C-alpha cells in the first residue's frame, strides 16, 4: 500500500470519527451517520489497497 493512499484512508477514517462525535454531541443523527459512513469507506479503501498489495508480490 502506498504511503499516500494509506494516509488518505486514515484521514478518511479520522474525518468520519470527528463527524460521528460531533453528531453525537449535538444530537444530529444525519451527521453521526455520515461519520460512520466515512469510516466504513476508509476501511473499505484500505482493504482494497491490501488486496492489491497481495497480488503485486
Helix tally equals: 2
Distance between the termini: 12 Å
Estimate the strand proportion.
Answer: under 5%
User: What level of helicity do the residues show?
Assistant: over 70%
Q: What is the chains' assembly state?
A: single chain
By DSSP, the count of extended strands is: 0
Counting helices, strands and paired strands, the structural category is mainly alpha
Number of domains: 1
Q: State the order of secondary-structure elements, H for helix, E for strand.
A: HH
**Main pleated-sheet profile:** none
Computed Rg: 14 Å
Spans of at least 5 consecutive residues whose pLDDT stays below 50 are none
- Averaged pLDDT: 90
User: Tell me, what's the shape?
Assistant: elongated
Topology overview:
Blueprint: H1 3-26, H2 29-56
Helix pairs in contact: 1-2
Account of the protein in words:
The chain is mainly alpha-helical. It has one domain. The chain has two helices and no strands. The longest helix has 28 residues. The N and C termini lie close together (12 Å).
Attribute tags:
single chain; 57 residues; mainly alpha; 2 helices
Amino acid at each position: 500500500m502506498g504511503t499516500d493512499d494509506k494516509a488518505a484512508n486514515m484521514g478518511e477514517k479520522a474525518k468520519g470519527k470527528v463527524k460521528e462525535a460531533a453528531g453525537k454531541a449535538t444530537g444530529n443523527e444525519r451527521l453521526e451517520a455520515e461519520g460512520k459512513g466515512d469510516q466504513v469507506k476508509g476501511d473499505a479503501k484500505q482493504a482494497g489497497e491490501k488486496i492489491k498489495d497481495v497480488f503485486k508480490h
